[in-house]
Specification:
heterodimer, A: 579 residues, Immunoglobulin-like, 3 domains, 14 helices, B: 154 residues, OB fold (Dihydrolipoamide Acetyltransferase, E2P), 8 strands
Chain lengths: 579, 154
């Protein structure tokens, strides 16, 4: 046994050495015909330029790839020479088919095969509305239905807007470097068709430290500008330069390059931009700025013809403008539960923020003025941002809000059947519903009141779709499967978003004692590493739903990178549309 | 832990009353330094920027006392720490380390002090400094600082 194990280690090590050459795009990459991308080979040793041999389908690469590669003699990783590299930027492959790329230099060899796909010549859809609940998991939907509509004798008393979309698929959300994933790379896969590494946007993450030099792939925003005259809209409740909205336009290894992402957004000029995150638009001299330069992107966007809106009223008044930049918070916008009901979080500082429904309406009204059609991305960012800190009520109320925004999109689709509507998540969370918590159940400890049979007593007297209170005596017992040390209070957090753990001087997260004295609270020891501040993303599949032209292509199991192919085909992005 | 808190508190109170050393006093209302709260910092908060409150402008260069939480130091050897309104609970997947809240105050100590537990409210006393400044060692940009400061758990 021991001997066998040793032999396995040796063979694995050898295989590792032989495989250490890396080619980007990776093996099995799918590439839209005609879309620009960067090609890079990272050798694991220093090689001579004359020894580098690259063939594509057995022929010298220059014919297929169109240009000469640039040779980099030595690339460094943490001050150590990691090996040589070759780079070829901004190349395109016009013809669909499989491309076997074989690379060798000295003892190093590597072979990858790319699939270049084309689209139909005629667009199937004029518009696409792509709506993403960040972290949207099955339990969020179920809880939203139960909380918003109620249930009698086992049958839902109403349906969510999401419940009646025509087609669906299970989506795998893993990253190029891990089964786990992050909102950056998974949205980037939806928006480029390429799976990247965790935290990356519109690039294959290479080994060099520079976060902005990594091999790029085309984003849907760029493809739309290259091939169509459609309008582009980006709407989110997070900072607009946060990972998900950024993925429509950006290229960086590191989603935290938010100042640079604002610049990339400016370069592409989406027609409607609505969300939070003004801090990265303000020059550093302004209090509240998070930039480290003097660029005033508010002014730059205004000079480029954008009407600025900074609250709900200005958004309502902005609809006569050609282009709209709506920034409603310096950071992430507040969640619906705080904004509309509890007035907690940062609502005191930013009291007049629009919600996702208003933003979606405005975006659709504005974008649909373009006779060429539009692409709109809408993200309910805070489903994720509230499930991370185990604040399930806030996450579910934002899921209800997201569903109401889906309702706005469905109304548009009903009037404009040439619109493809996609509703999905980008990854899941470990949230699940364990029956009810019934305050009136017998028992002195709160755990005795968990998992009780029956139906919750949320009330929606004003029929706005939101429960009048989340703090009812028979409420959903929702828990997250993975967590840091924290105090479980068994109750909604009425004083502001939950902050389960805080960091100590060893950078470990310990339970936040602010919740220690909540009646019934118990200490829960974390099951994540101590450097985890909150619940982590989970690897479970996401459910995608869709309606409208080309939605029949969503079925079975798909990678999120495959979804891009459906979007590209719906808009015939393989073909220049000149009308 | 709790017990030592109480003991510390009463000792400081006693010293404050009897000896009257301003640095060691708790509360400090109407005393040598003015109380400043996180709510006091900005008079106008908007998407287009924040404006310091009249109180902050008035107290610039003057001794202040402020309560909050000590964020874990950026570097062990850093000369300063960040005072926050609530204990820091940064989420590595949904935001970056650079995403500090708007209303932080950077504290430069007058002498080395050990770092506190994250759940512990502290009171910082020192001289308020107002305006943008970049820490030469770390590049950390701050807009409000308390210099020549000392702190104690409360």
């Amino acid at each position: 046994m021991r001997k066998l194990f040793a032999a396995l280690v040796v063979s694995t090590a050898l295989a590792g050495a032989a495989q250490a050459t890396t080619v980007y795009p990776l093996d099995r990459a799918t590439i839209l015909a005609g879309s620009p991308f960067d090609f890079k080979v990272e050798f694991s040793s220093v090689v001579k330029p004359e020894d580098v041999k690259i063939t594509v389908n057995g022929q010298d690469y220059k014919a297929a790839l169109g240009k000469d590669v640039q040779f980099v003699a030595e690339e460094k990783v943490k001050d150590k020479v990691a090996g040589s590299a070759v780079i070829l930027r901004n190349l395109t492959i016009a013809n669909a088919g499989d491309y076997k790329v074989e690379v060798s230099a000295g003892s190093e060899t590597k072979s990858v095969t790319w699939n270049v796909y084309n689209t139909g010549t005629t667009p199937k859809a004029k518009n696409i509305i792509f709506m993403l609940g960040d972290g949207l998991s099955v339990a969020h939907r179920t809880a939203a239905r139960l909380m918003s509509k109620g249930m009698t004798e086992g049958k839902a008393n109403g349906r969510l807007n999401m419940d009646d979309l025509d087609r669906m698929a299970f989506i795998g959300t893993s990253a190029a470097d891990s089964i786990t994933t992050d909102s950056a790379n998974t949205m980037s896969a939806y928006m480029t068709g390429h799976k990247g590494a965790i935290n990356s946007l519109g690039v294959y993450a290479d080994r060099t430290a520079d976060t902005l030099d990594d091999p790029r792939v085309e984003t849907i925003g760029e493809a739309l500008r290259r091939q169509t005259k459609k309008s582009i809209g980006i709407v989110a409740t997070s900072e607009i330069e946060d990972a998900t909205p950024a993925a429509v336009v950006s290229h960086t290894r590191r989603r935290d390059d938010k100042a640079e992402i604002v610049g990339m957004m400016f370069d592409l000029r989406p027609d409607v931009i609505l969300g939070g995150g003004s801090a990265y638009f303000l020059p550093q001299a302004t209090n509240g700025s998070k930039r480290k330069d003097d660029k005033d992107y508010i002014k730059m966007f205004q000079d480029a013809g954008y009407k600025l809106a900074t609250d709900k009223n200005e958004l309502a008044a902005a609809t006569n403008a050609d282009k709209i930049l709506g920034l409603f918070h310096t950071g992430n916008m507040d969640v619906a539960l705080d904004r509309e009901f509890l007035k907690k979080g940062t609502v005191g500082k930013f009291p007049n923020q629009p919600g996702l429904v208003d933003m979606t309406k405005t975006a659709i009204d504005q974008l649909s003025k373009n006779p060429e059609g539009f692409f709109l991305m809408v993200e309910a960012s805070n489903i994720d941002k509230m499930t991370h800190p185990l604040d399930n009520e806030r996450a579910v109320v934002d899921t209800i809000e997201f569903d109401q925004a889906v309702g706005v999109a469905k109304d548009f689709v009903a009037r404009n059947p040439d619109t493809l509507l996609v509703v999905t998540g980008d990854h899941t969370h470990g949230i699940t519903i364990v029956g009810m918590i019934d305050d009136e159940a017998e028992g002195t400890e709160m755990r005795e009141k968990v998992g009780v049979r029956g139906f919750p007593n949320y009330v929606d007297a004003n029929k706005d779709g939101f429960p009048d209170s989340v703090d009812v005596t028979k409420r959903l017992a929702m828990f997250v499967s993975n967590y840091p040390d924290h105090y479980e209070t068994f109750r909604p957090k009425l004083d502001g978003p939950f902050s389960p753990a805080v960091q100590n001087d060893k950078k470990e997260y310990v339970a936040n004692e602010a919740y220690k004295d909540v009646p019934g609270a118990v200490f829960v020891q974390g099951n994540l590493p101590k450097d985890a501040s909150s619940g982590a993303h989970t690897v479970d599949d996401v459910v995608l739903q869709a309606t409208g032209p080309a939605s029949e292509n969503f079925k079975g199991y798909m990678e999120q990178s495959d979804v891009y192919k459906v979007l590209a085909d719906a808009f015939a992005l393989g073909v220049k549309q000149t009308n | 832990m709790k017990k030592s808190f109480g003991a510390q508190l009463s000792r400081r109170r006693t010293l404050g009353f009897v000896v009257g050393l301003p640095l060691l006093m708790v509360g400090g209302r109407g005393e040598a330094s003015d109380d400043l709260t996180f709510d006091d910092l900005y008079g106008k908060i908007s998407v287009l920027g924040l404006e310091f409150s009249e109180k902050v402008k008035k107290l610039a260069g003057k001794p202040v006392a402020m309560r909050g939480f000590m964020a874990p130091p950026l570097k062990a050897e850093a000369q300063f720490f960040v005072l926050t309104e609530v204990p820091m609970s940064i989420c590595p997947f949904c935001s970056s380390d650079s995403d500090w809240p708007d209303n932080i105050v950077v504290v430069y100590l007058n002498r080395k002090q050990t770092f506190t537990q994250p759940n512990e409210t502290i009171e910082v006393r020192g001289t308020l400094e107002v305006g943008s400044w970049t820490d030469p060692d770390t590049g950390f940009v701050s807009r409000l600082r308390i210099r020549d400061a000392a702190y104690q758990a409360v």
